[in-house]
Amino acid sequence: MARGITSDIILVLAPPWGVDEPHLGLAYLATYLKDKGYLPEIYDMNIEVFHDVYNSPLRELWKSSRQPDWMNRSVFYSQTVPRLESHLEQGVNSILKNRTKTIGFSVTASNRLFTLEMIRRIKERDRSRFIIVGGIGCYTEGERLIFLPPGMVDAFVIGEGEEILVDLLDSLENKRPLANVSGCIYWTGEGYSRGVPRPLVEHLDSIPFPTFDEFPLDLYLYGRKSFDEFTMKHTPILGSRGCVNRCAFCNDVAIWPSFRHRSARHICDELFYESKKRNITAFVFQDLTINGNLLLLREMCRLFKSKLIDDFRFPVRWVSNVIARKGMDHDTFTLMKNAGCHTLMFGIESGSDKVLKLMRKGYTSESAAKVLQECKRSGIAVWINLIVGFPGEGEREFLETLCFIKENKGYIDRVQNLNICNVVESAELQRNAGRYGVVLPDDDMAYLHWRSVDGTNTFEERKRRLFMLKAEIESLGICVENMNIEGEEGKIG
Ligand code: B12
Ligand code: SF4
């Protein structure tokens, strides 16, 4: 339980991660812990280091195309660590200066090596600190094996962290065996032992929505970088967890195996809280898709309009990811527009029906185009994501994507993410690589440098297609915002 000035746990986010808004996972954990009587502290080292290097070329490292600088071990240790050495030390020192014994790190694939380096240095100087690692970057055994030597991490939390972390802190405080904490893998002194897996939280309304009280809220960029419409502060928000689709390149199903959503009322209460208490009326839904349940979506929009916009006159504005699925008709988009939605991001990915089928997107290029047109017609801006070089995409299919963009250019406001196909951990494409004719080299960068069995789909070829598509899209007057590869690894400036 909270012990006055010393907190019960410091929750740390090491770089790199997004800089536009606070980390939603840690915000959920902090609010949940407080609700259960604990005193958490947040150390968003990511945003602090980002601001420290803001006026130097090192700032480039936060671009999404710079993932290899953080994930490729040889580049990371030979270049990224020396470049950020003083920041790394400063981070470790500020954690060690704090007397809190329990430290929780949130990891993704991007910040795993940096987190590991911090933990090593902390444990070297003070073995008594109890280190917990949670987040989507430690769900699989392969991901956890990186945390060497064994025993440096005292416990891994696998899955949704709210309930597990409270159980873990309770057990530590009351000196109960960690074996009883489901969802946790803990160090016994000799090896790691795994408790039973934790079922997903069934009723999402039972988890309090985050209040962000512990975050340095003035440090985030709030879309100054990527959301032209927003120069004002916004709040990240989550109406659902999981997705109704099972796309072959995506690993979200491994993270959240089933789709669950909060009630419309609970989501509306959160917007009300933000508008009334914090004077924030701009929201970025981080849901994998806002339309996993169309009935809920419509109910939520009606509630936003009648309660927030009409009754309380809060000018709520929001943006979300969405699937170009059946049922997304003119009426639905109009409801969304009237409820404050100004932009929707569609993971269209390809304009080739053959590739869309292989990807398991669940729509054809024709039906996707219709949805984009309806969206645009309702006055909501259309942003799309594209993936180049999915296995099975040859020159012909690639050109079909190009044609799709040309034919629908009037309905596309922006290409938000133009990526080459990565074979990510736990995705169907990785688990059944052979079935897709994918050959993965045995190194850290296999996800990026894979090739097709027939040798026609290589990293170089995907790169060529990516830059060609980028040039064509830009020549149509459509902006390409992010790409997952760019220049050469390791180079700055
Ligand atoms: C929103 C989002 C973003 C936003 C984040 C905004 C923000 N301020 O947080 C932005 C746009 C910045 C972003 C960027 C990227 N993202 Co992203 N993103 C997401 C998304 C859709 C939702 C994340 C979220 O908010 N989840 C909601 C919270 C509640 O869940 P959570 O964070 O997982 O936390 C829970 C548990 O994991 C656990 N937990 C988390 N931390 C900890 C810590 C402790 C101590 C404990 C006990 C528990 C615990 O408890 C939490 C509560 O239940 C996820 C998809 C997904 N399914 O998660 C992808 C995802 C996280 N992103 C991913 C990727 C790859 C990226 C990029 C690298 C993409 C790229 N190439 O550009 C960039 C990185 C940018 C950078 N500069 O480094 C991958 C990560 C894969 C991996 N295994 O690491 C995901 C999973 C998508 C995917 N399937 O590929 N992303
Ligand atoms: S629709 Fe998006 S989140 Fe859902 S499975 Fe496909 S890629 Fe993943």
Q: Could you walk me through the main structural features you see in this protein, from its secondary elements to its overall organization?
A:
The chain is α/β, with parallel strands linked by helices and 493 residues long. It folds into two domains: 9-186, 3-Layer(aba) Sandwich (Rossmann fold); 222-483, Alpha-Beta Horseshoe (pyruvate-formate lyase- activating enzyme), CATH 3.80.30. The chain is built from 17 helices and 18 strands. The chain has helices spanning 24-35, 45-52, 67-71, 73-97, 112-125, 141-144, 161-173, 252-255, 264-277, 294-311, 330-338, 353-359, 365-377, 395-407, 428-431, 446-449, 459-475; strands at 9-13, 40-44, 102-106, 130-134, 155-157, 184-187, 192-194, 234-237, 240-241, 260-261, 282-285, 317-322, 341-349, 381-388, 414-420, 438-439, 451-452, 479-483. The strands form four sheets. Strands 2-1-3-4-5-6-7 form a seven-stranded mixed sheet. A seven-stranded parallel sheet has the order 8-11-12-13-14-15-18. A two-stranded antiparallel ribbon has the order 9-10. Helix 9 (264-277) packs parallel to helix 10 (294-311). Mean pLDDT is 94; it is low at 225-230. Cobalamin (B12) binds at residues 11, 16-18, 21, 23-25, 28-29, 62, 64, 67, 104-106, 108-110, 132, 134-137, 157, 160-162, 165, 236, 238, 250-252, 255-256, 286, 288, 424-425, 484.
